[in-house]
């Protein structure tokens, strides 16, 4: 039976200052997409508002732009997918085996409070599916509650972009909150790699999270293996 993956991407194009652009960190999508495509999985994109998902400019420049992301940029069919993503109300969670939250600083604004994304996450998880995220994508898991009212992440091992990585990336003063701190405040058992910007994947049952862009491929591989 063909497995189906729902990728979550952002609609936000800038930091609080409109002159400072951000968006989807493309490689976090493309590395996972390649892993799932190689398995023959079906894949679809969803965003909080539907429509276009802007791209983080920093991720489109050397040395951060790798072959995977470059190939997507140069493929009109792939770019068309990002130009017309589905909104949550157009998605039936019953049709998907896993949800994968991509990152980029933009998601810190539109992922955490989106009721549609929370519904999809809850329904996929409670049907026995996998909930996964990479980097800032874990912001989309901060406020998701299960049917019993408990937070999905409470008491669970997770990882995601760390505060030290925010500092080293030079954006600590631009982000709206400390995601690592907020995750811990919700009772999550946050973990991170010994060295910043190195791959780290944490799996706690059907909850799979990756720390940073360097973790995207490994995160997707863990999800694919579980499926």
Overall pLDDT confidence: 97
Kindly name the structural category: alpha/beta
What is the CA-atom radius of gyration, in angstroms? 16 Å
Number of strands: 8
| β-sheet strand percentage | 5-15%
Going by CATH, the architecture would be 3-Layer(aba) Sandwich
Report the oligomer: single chain
Keywords: Glutamine amidotransferase, Lyase, Stress response
Domain DJ-1/PfpI: 79-223
Protein name: Type 1 glutamine amidotransferase domain-containing protein
Description:
The model has no long low-confidence stretch (mean pLDDT 97). The protein has a single domain (4-226), classed as 3-Layer(aba) Sandwich (Rossmann fold). With 227 residues, it is of the alpha/beta class. A 6-stranded mixed β-sheet has the order 2-1-3-4-8-7, with helices on both faces. The protein is globular, with a radius of gyration of 16 Å. The chain is 30% helix and 14% strand. Helix 1 (26-38) packs parallel to helix 8 (216-226). The chain has helices at 26-38, 67-73, 76-83, 107-110, 115-126, 163-169, 179-185, 216-226, and strands spanning 4-8, 42-46, 98-101, 130-134, 157-158, 189-190, 201-204, 207-210. The longest helix is centred in the first third of the chain and has 13 residues, at 26-38. The protein is built from 8 helices and 8 strands. It starts with a strand and ends with a helix.
């Amino acid at each position: 039976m063909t497995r189906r993956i729902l990728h979550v991407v952002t609609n936000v194009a800038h930091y609080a200052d409109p002159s400072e652009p951000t968006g989807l960190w493309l490689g976090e999508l493309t590395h996972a997409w390649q892993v799932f495509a190689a398995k023959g999985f079906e894949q679809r994109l969803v965003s909080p508002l539907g429509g276009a998902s802007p791209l983080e400019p920093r991720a489109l420049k050397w040395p951060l732009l790798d072959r995977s992301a470059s190939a997507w940029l140069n493929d009109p069919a792939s770019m068309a997918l990002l130009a017309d993503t589905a909104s949550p109300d157009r998605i039936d969670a019953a049709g998907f085996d896993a949800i994968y939250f991509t990152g980029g600083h933009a998601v810190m604004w539109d992922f955490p409070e989106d009721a549609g994304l929370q519904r999809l996450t809850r329904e996929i998880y409670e049907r026995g599916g996998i909930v996964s995220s990479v980097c800032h994508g874990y912001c989309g898991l901060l406020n998701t509650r299960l049917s019993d009212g408990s937070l999905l992440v409470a008491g669970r091992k997770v990882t995601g972009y760390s505060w030290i990585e925010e500092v080293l990336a030079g954006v600590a003063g631009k982000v709206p909150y400390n995601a690592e701190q907020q995750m811990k405040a919700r009772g999550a058992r946050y973990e991170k790699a010994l060295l910043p910007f190195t791959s780290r994947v944490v799996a706690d049952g059907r909850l799979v999270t990756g720390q940073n862009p360097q973790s995207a491929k490994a995160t997707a591989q863990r999800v694919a293996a579980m499926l």
